[in-house]
Write a structure and sequence with these properties.
Largest sheet: 6 strands, antiparallel, barrel
Oligomer: single chain
Helix content: 10-25%
Distance between the termini: 27 Å
Number of helices: 7
Strand content: 25-35%
Shape: globular
Order of helices and strands: HEEEHEEEEEEEEEHEEHHEEEHEEHE
Structural class: alpha+beta
Radius of gyration: 23 Å
Length: 360
């Protein structure tokens, strides 16, 4: 078994209302390590494992200057194999490395490269430069060597340059990990961007050095009025809206086996859809007849790219009319209808669940 395959269960996708990124488990402190910019504007996020299970995690520490954040997950099973974060691990030019993570929110991905420069100075800070492919969504993920040891934490990529990715080196990470015993798991602590002193209470200045602090860093970025309405519908299903957030005005969650996506299209329409099943190879006449004649109310059954979909579309302006409560109820019911119909197509027509479906 490859090193990346062995430890991939300890690497998670981080989901927020602003976007997605990557994080990885640290056994010594039972925390998730990621970038600050991945979770910026959030005090509570969700982390997603390989089986599409999502868990809540408190943001317990942020250091915007070093672009690091530590998360304390809730009810997360401890992974058996994790990234080895040795303090004495050295990196040299030409060393082979692997970047692990979730670029563009895709499933788990591994890219390979070498260390181009282990001590690249940018903006006065030291970074590891690599030519391994690094893309949006990789941020916060681990870079490991061929032995599976942690080399660094992915932090950025020049937008106008190819084959140039950067990672926070181990020395910087261990400096931050050393203060974890001083932190409270349910309280956000931040590091001053000037003196690196710890600040555990909301303030507009550092009590240690007096420099100005943006007190909004202690708060969640407010959701739009529209997003609040959508999350009311998700909450009707007994699902924490935080667990459903997958980017800006984009939500994904499983209702039973069915994956539900709620998103804005063309700036004017709200779509809720579920890829129910893959089309079977036989019995298509009866299946088509069912799709064309079955009364699904406000929802639409359709076929696209060999998959059966259930969808619901409304104009966003309708959410600001007297029909608001009915629309929110329809959004919630779509999820339950999708979980019902994917079984119907399996049992009655020989269809299969899609790769997006969750095994339950």
């Amino acid at each position: 078994m490859s090193i990346s395959k062995k430890i991939q269960d300890s690497i998670y996708r981080i989901n927020t209302s602003q976007g997605t990124g990557t994080g990885f488990y640290n056994t010594e402190h039972n925390i998730i390590i990621t970038n600050y910019h991945v979770i910026e504007g959030n005090t509570l996020v969700s982390i997603e494992d390989q089986e599409k299970n999502r868990y809540l995690a408190n943001v317990m520490y942020i250091n915007s200057g070093k672009d690091l954040a530590f998360l304390k997950p809730k009810d997360l099973p401890t992974p058996i194999n994790t990234v080895t974060a040795s303090q004495n691990n050295e990196t040299f030019t030409g060393d082979k490395v692997l970047v692990l993570g979730y670029p563009y929110g895709m499933p788990f991905t591994v890219t390979e490269g070498i260390v181009s420069n282990p001590h690249q100075i940018m903006n006065g800070s030291n970074f590891i430069q690599t030519d391994a492919a690094v893309n949006p969504g990789n941020s916060g993920g681990p870079i490991i060597n061929s032995a599976g040891d942690l080399v660094g934490v992915v932090t950025s990529k020049f937008t106008n340059a190819d084959n140039m990715g950067f990672a926070i080196p181990m020395g910087t990470l261990h400096e931050e990990l050393s203060i974890v015993p001083e932190l409270q798991s349910n309280t956000l602590t931040m590091a001053c961007h000037s003196c690196n002193g710890l600040i555990a209470e909301k303030t507009n200045y550092c009590p240690n050095c007096g420099t100005d602090i943006n007190e909004k860093m202690f708060d969640d970025t407010p959701l739009s009025e529209f997003s609040v309405k959508v999350e009311q519908a998700i909450a009707k299903l007994g699902i924490s809206p935080v667990l459903a957030r997958s980017g800006n005005e984009y939500w994904t969650f499983h209702q039973g086996s069915a994956l539900i996506k709620v998103y804005v299209c063309e700036s004017n329409y709200l779509f809720a859809s579920s890829a129910l099943n893959d089309l079977p190879r036989t019995n298509l006449d009866k299946l088509y007849q069912y799709i064309l004649t079955e009364d699904t109310g406000v929802y639409q059954l359709s076929i696209s790219q060999n998959k059966i979909y259930l969808s619901y579309r409304i104009h966003i302006s309708d959410l600001y009319t007297e029909n608001e409560l009915e629309i929110l109820e329809n959004l919630a019911r779509l999820a339950k209808k999708a979980d019902e119909l994917d079984d119907v197509f399996v049992n009655n027509f020989g269809a299969k669940m899609t790769h997006l479906s969750k095994v339950i």
